TrEMBL record:
Signal sequence annotation: none
InterPro entries membership: Glyco_trans_1, Glycosyltransferase_G1
Keywords: Glycosyltransferase, Transferase
UniProt key word Transferase: yes
Domain (Glycosyl transferase family): residue spans on this chain: 165-319
Protein name: Glycosyltransferase 1 domain containing 1
Source species: Labrus bergylta (ballan wrasse)
High-level lineage: Eukaryota, Metazoa, Chordata, Craniata, Vertebrata
C-alpha cells in the first residue's frame, strides 16, 4: 500500500522524530510511506491532486487534526489521524478550528491518541465516535553519541565556570514556541542562581517562533544563571540530557512529551509542569516531580538535589515505566494493524453507527470464504434503519468491494448486502425473516474482544 503521511516537520522537533519513527513502523510492514511537511501545502485541493497522481496514493495519515488533518478533507482514499496535543488541548478553543477538526475526525477511518486523557478530551469537545479512537502511547528510543564533550557543550552555551563538573545543570528541552512557554521559569530560576551560583538552567531546542526566540535571547543576555544552547542532533541532545542534573518541562500544553520519556529512559530525573499531558506520564514523587508554579519548581528542585533516595526512586521508576509502557514493539504493532483492510475498517464502520443507539448490542465476526464471498455477521437487539445507514457508510468508504452477507438471529431481520464483483453493479439491500446460518454461530465474538 502506498501511504501519504503529513506532519509538521520543523527540524529537530518532537513532531519530526515521532513522524519518522511511525513511518519506519509502517514501512517495516511492507508499505510505502511518503512523509511530507504539512507546511508545504496551502489547501486540501493541493493534497487531493498529489494523492491522485500516477501511481496514486492508496491511503493517508496525518499528525495533528488541524495543521495536517484539514489538508486531507478533499481526498477520496481512507485516512487516519494522530492527535498532536495542541489540536485537542488548544485549537478546540477556537470555534473555526474546532469545526474543521470535527469534519476531519468524522471522515477519518481511525484516530490515535497518545493518552487516555487526550481521547477523553477529543470525545468531549469534538463530535467523534469513541470506537474509532485508539490509545497508543509513544514508543521511545534513546541514542547517545559517543563523541560528546560535556565541557565543550557548556562552554559553547556561554558557561565559563570552572570546574564544570560541580555545576548542577537543569536542561530545559523545548522548541522555542509559545506553547512550550520557555520564559516561564527564567526570572525565578535566576534569583535561585544568585543564591547558589552552581545552579544553572540551559535551554536547548530548535528556534521555531522568531519573535519568541528574540525574546528568549534578550532575556538570557541580561539574566544571570540562564543560558541558551545551540540546537543539536538527537544523539548529542540525549548525551547532554544524560549528563545534566534534571530535564525540565515548562509547557502550557502537551500531547505526550518525548523529551520527558527520553529523559526517563536515559535515567535522568524529570521536573515537569503540572498539566494533563505531563501528569499522564509523570507520577509525582514516583516517576518524576511535578510543579504548578515557578516557586514550586525551585522547591522541588531543592528536594531533588538534597534527597538522594528521592532521586534514586524517581530515576528507577521512570526507567521501568518507559520500558513497560512505551516500548517500540507495541507501537509498531499498533500502527501496522491499523492499516489492515479487514476486519478493522469494516468493524469500525459498523461500530461507529451502532454506538449512536442506546442499549443496542453489536457483535462482529469474520467467518471466512463462502461461495467466493466474505461473510460478516451483524447482530442487533431489533431491526432498524440503522442497518441501511451502515451499509451506505460502508459503501461510501469503499468497503463493499466484495460480496458481504449481514445476518441477525431468528427473531430479527436477515439483511443481505451484496455488490457484484463481476459487473460492478450497485449493491442491493434485501430483508427477510430467517435464522442465522449454523456455521456462523460458533464464530460469534463480542466487540470488546475484537482485535
Amino acid at each position: 500500500m502506498k501511504i501519504l503521511f503529513l506532519a509538521c516537520l520543523s527540524p529537530k522537533t518532537g513532531n519530526h522524530t515521532t513522524a519518522e519513527r511511525i513511518r519506519s513502523h509502517i514501512e517495516s510492514a511492507g508499505h510505502t510511506c511518503e512523509l511530507r511537511d504539512a507546511a508545504d501545502f496551502q489547501s486540501p485541493a493541493e493534497v487531493a491532486n498529489l494523492i491522485s497522481r500516477n501511481p496514486p496514493f492508496e491511503a493517508a495519515l496525518a499528525i495533528h487534526l488541524f495543521r495536517a488533518g484539514r489538508l486531507l478533507l478533499d481526498i477520496q482514499v481512507p485516512f487516519g489521524v494522530i492527535f498532536g496535543g495542541t489540536d485537542i488541548n488548544e485549537d478546540v478553543k477556537v470555534e473555526k478550528k474546532r469545526v474543521v477538526m470535527e469534519q476531519v475526525l468524522l471522515k477519518a477511518r481511525f484516530a490515535v491518541a497518545f493518552t487516555d486523557k487526550l481521547k477523553e478530551e477529543a470525545e468531549l469537545f469534538l463530535l467523534s465516535q469513541s470506537s474509532k479512537i485508539y490509545v497508543q502511547p509513544q514508543g521511545i528510543r534513546s541514542e547517545v553519541t559517543e563523541n560528546f564533550c560535556w565541557t565543550d557543550f557548556l562552554r559553547s552555551s556561554g558557561l565559563s565556570s570552572e570546574p564544570v563538573d560541580e555545576l548542577r545543570v537543569f536542561l530545559l528541552v523545548c522548541g522555542l514556541r509559545r506553547v512550550k512557554d520557555p520564559l516561564y521559569l527564567l526570572h525565578v530560576f535566576s534569583e535561585w542562581h544568585c543564591e547558589n551560583p552552581l545552579n544553572v538552567l540551559v535551554i536547548i531546542g530548535p528556534k521555531i517562533d522568531p519573535v519568541l526566540t528574540a525574546e528568549v535571547e534578550a532575556f538570557v543576555q541580561r539574566t544571570a544563571g540562564v543560558f541558551l544552547a545551540q540546537e543539536r542532533s538527537q544523539q548529542e541532545l540525549h548525551a547532554a540530557m544524560k549528563r545534566c542534573s534534571a530535564v525540565v518541562n515548562s509547557s502550557v500544553s502537551e500531547g505526550m512529551s518525548a523529551a520527558i520519556l527520553e529523559a526517563m529512559d536515559l535515567g535522568v530525573p524529570v521536573l515537569a509542569r503540572d498539566i494533563p499531558g505531563n501528569a499522564a506520564v509523570v507520577q509525582h514523587e514516583f516517576t518524576g516531580l511535578l510543579y504548578s508554579s515557578p516557586q514550586e519548581f525551585v522547591h522541588q528542585s531543592q528536594r531533588l538535589l538534597s534527597d538522594p533516595a528521592l532521586r534514586e526512586r524517581v530515576v528507577r521508576n521512570g526507567k521501568l515505566y518507559v520500558e513497560e509502557c512505551h516500548g517500540l514493539k507495541q507501537e509498531r504493532e499498533t500502527y501496522q494493524q491499523l492499516w489492515m483492510p479487514w476486519p478493522f475498517s469494516l468493524g469500525e464502520c459498523w461500530r461507529s453507527n451502532v454506538e449512536k443507539v442506546v442499549n443496542w448490542t453489536l457483535f462482529l465476526l469474520l467467518v471466512g470464504e463462502w461461495m467466493d464471498s466474505l461473510c460478516i455477521g451483524l447482530f442487533l437487539m431489533e431491526p432498524t434503519q440503522l442497518i441501511g445507514e451502515s451499509v451506505t457508510e460502508a459503501r461510501q468508504l469503499g468497503l463493499l468491494d466484495k460480496e458481504a452477507v449481514l445476518s441477525v438471529p431468528m427473531s430479527m431481520t436477515v439483511v443481505v448486502v451484496w455488490e457484484s464483483c463481476w459487473t460492478g453493479l450497485p449493491g442491493t439491500l434485501i430483508t427477510s425473516s430467517a435464522s442465522v446460518p449454523s456455521h456462523t454461530q460458533s464464530c460469534l465474538c463480542p466487540v470488546g474482544s475484537w482485535p
